[in-house]
Design brief:
By secondary structure, this protein is an all-beta fold. Helix content is about 0%, strand content about 45%. It binds calcium ion (CA).
Length: about 350
């Protein structure tokens, strides 16, 4: 077990004028992984971590890593493979764990499944597929983030699979955010009778999804060339992709912006140049009280941890820490500790420590 304090030098990037002192950070390494994608903190201590190639790992509170048997078979190609892991709201009594992954031919489809975790194995028993994006197909942009609402509903982001147009087709499972029952059935009260699982549409590649302390749902998504977005997710709204964006096509071709089409909901915050957001939590913990009420986002291309203050219907970036590694996921626990999961090979799971 490696548990040394890494004397990483943290560089503070300029941010917008803010009265809040920026917190110096150091990092404690807990474990390392190969192309990890997401993590969940276990209530008894320790973590579940997914790796893109299909491994589901259990990390004990002391940093010992073991493979959990019973993970699904996945199609590993480019951006896709095994993705998010989330605990059921009643995990402590049910043991239920939710996973997302891509599997199938011609690019496959995003799948959502759940199984019962037996840490004595460790193994995942009775894994069942409870939702699958239809139709199949595409390449990257899985989305695949899971969040549970305060009332127990299950929300999932489904990326556009780099196809764009499906995001505007209600009957197509791609480019949407879904609201489901815990068993994967469409939730009652969803807005579109002919697309019963859909909550919102017009999404590109949402890699972050979280509720805030007042029960509002937030998601971020990567823009094309520029135009990463932070969106407040409101029932029935269309977020505009691929018809509007604050970014450009990779070819350089312009895309109309959100203001040109008021029927589409604009982002509350956009990043050009991009940060390539991945992972997001709402932070209300005691370890970093100066961050309470903020969103913390990981950054891939930006190799950063980004803090966004949300207030009413506004959001603004207030802190950005250059971590020096691509960040794939962010998590917190009941004590208010904050954890980062790096991207790529030999990627570290880190605990944040207040620096000097
Ligand atoms: Ca948008």
């Amino acid at each position: 077990m490696i548990r040394e304090i890494l004397a990483t030098v943290v560089i503070f990037l300029a941010s917008s004028a803010s009265a809040i002192a920026q917190t110096p950070l150091e990092f404690e390494q807990i474990a390392t992984f190969d192309q990890p994608w997401a993590m969940a903190v276990l209530p008894q201590g320790g973590f579940l971590v997914t790796e893109k190639a299909g491994r589901l790992a259990y990390v004990s509170a002391t940093g010992e890593v073991r493979t959990i048997e019973g993970a699904p078979s996945v199609t590993v190609d480019g951006q896709v493979g095994l993705h998010d892991v989330a605990l059921a709201p009643d995990f402590e009594t049910s043991g239920l764990v939710y996973l997302t992954w891509v599997d199938g031919t011609n690019g496959g489809a995003l799948h959502l499944g759940r199984g019962r975790l037996d840490l004595a194995g460790p193994r995942l028993d009775d894994l069942q597929i409870i939702w699958r994006a239809e139709p199949m197909g595409g390449s990257g942009h899985p989305g695949a983030m899971i969040a549970f609402g305060p009332d127990g509903h299950l929300f999932v982001t489904s990326g556009d699979r780099q196809l764009g147009d499906p995001a505007q087709v209600l009957g197509d499972g791609r480019g949407k955010i879904l609201r489901l029952m815990a068993d994967g059935a469409p939730a009652s009260g969803n807005p579109f009778p002919n697309a019963p699982e859909v909550w919102t549409s017009g999404h590109r590649n949402p890699y972050g999804l979280t509720f805030d302390g007042t029960g509002r749902l937030w998601s971020h998504e990567m823009g094309p060339r520029g135009g990463d977005e932070l969106n407040m997710i409101v029932v029935g709204q269309n977020y505009g992709w691929p018809l509007v964006s604050e970014g450009r096509q990779y070819s350089g071709r312009a895309i109309p912006n959100h203001a040109s089409r008021p029927e589409f909901t604009p982002p509350l915050l956009e990043w050009t140049p991009i940060i390539a957001p991945a992972g997001m939590i709402y932070y209300d913990g005691l370890v970093f009280p100066e961050w309470q009420g903020s969103l913390l986002l990981g950054g891939l291309a930006s190799q950063a941890l980004v803090r966004v203050e949300i207030s009413g219907n506004t959001a603004r970036e207030v802190d950005r820490w250059d971590i020096g590694h691509r960040i794939r996921d962010v998590a917190t626990d009941v004590d208010g500790q904050v954890y980062l999961l790096e991207d790529g090979s030999n990627a570290r799971l880190l605990r944040l420590i207040r620096g000097n």
